[in-house]
Amino acid sequence: MTQATLDEFEKLLEESFSNGHSVADIVEGTVLKKDQDGYLISVRGAKTEAFLPNKEISSAEEASPLEVGDIKEFYVLKEEHDEEGMLLSLKRLAFAQAWAQLNDAKVQGDTILAKVVSVVKGGVLVDVADLKGFIPSSQLRTGTPFDGLLDQKIEVKVLEADPKKNKLILSQRQAVAEQRDQVVDNILAELQEDQVVKGEVVRIADFGAFVDINGIDGLLPISEISWQRIKHPSDVISLGETIEVKIIKIDNELKRISLSLKRMGEDPWQQIEGQFAEGQVITGTVNKVTGFGAFINIFPGVEALLPVSEMAEENVNPFNKYKVGDSIEVLIKKFTPQEHRIALSVKDINKEEVAAE
Fold first, then answer.
1. pLDDT band at residue 16 using 50, 70 and 90 as cut-offs
2. How far apart are CA 15 and CA 29, in angstroms?
3. Which residues, at least 6 apart from 143, have a Cβ–Cβ distance to it below 8 Å?
4. Domains of the chain by residue range
5. For residue range 283-312, what is the model confidence (pLDDT) as tens digits?
6. Which helix (H) or strand (E) holds 351?
7. Candidates 3.20.20.210, 3.40.720.10, 2.40.50.140, 3.40.50.300; correct CATH number of 191-264?
8. Most CB atoms within 10 A, among 63, 146, 211, 303?
9. What is the pTM assigned to this prediction?
């Protein structure tokens, strides 16, 4: 073998090594042909045509199909071997790019869009650029996952993005908090006490509910939901519901607003003025029984107290004497609706009857 032939052989050998493509490499290729199972791709440096299966096409290409002559980058799934061409993927390339973008978003603190695809125990599953992510209940704005979130696109922050573990954890609450900080001063400046506004119920707790008012959350305490006694806010309102409420307090220093739903209607304590009088015997319904007495509903939204000492002449156990829902006759012993107080008596009914005789 001459020196020239040897040099040429070494050159070809070097080229063969330099043009070899390994799994996970990103290569450039040209679409040659479309068949039933996928696409034939010409990759520079490859000895044979590569193949892109239909199942390895990303959603972007499903929306805008590949055309013959298109030049794109591909992910190498399987190396070229003898006469067998490389196996390529666009889906894996999209995944790799998506993970990189999500990691950048985490580092930069950027907000991204995610589509809620499923409500599961402990949170919701979302779709982000063909990747599945998880938002724990504690990181949801509502604090509770509910079906109304399905198919919604929501803004989130990236808490964890680990492609090796295929773990993507997101937070809607952090994204909302950042937005709130940016707009709260402007929104508060446009609001005033006693103003009626519309808002969406975004979170429900035992003590009340949070209502989104133009981008900030206002507190609707359970005591301001209904004039009547309720056990839980969800007895009256539901997540995702749009309601009209009245602003009862604005705290510019703490940047908080307090709301009322019950004050959207007429105060029942004002309605009963002139309708009842001390000494009058009426019929009411037991709403709640306690160790010191029972609360009696005498008018929609108005409760009066029947102390245990006024239940009978003898000592009684209020829990044995009455239960919630009982209809009973009571005498109005003290009537001060301006103070939202009405005292009742049962034992004095007999005294009134004896006096009348």
1. very low
2. 18
3. 137, 203, 204, 205
4. 25-89, 104-174, 191-264, 273-356
5. 999 999 999 999 999 999 899 999 999 998
6. helix 347-356
7. 2.40.50.140
8. 211
9. 0.60
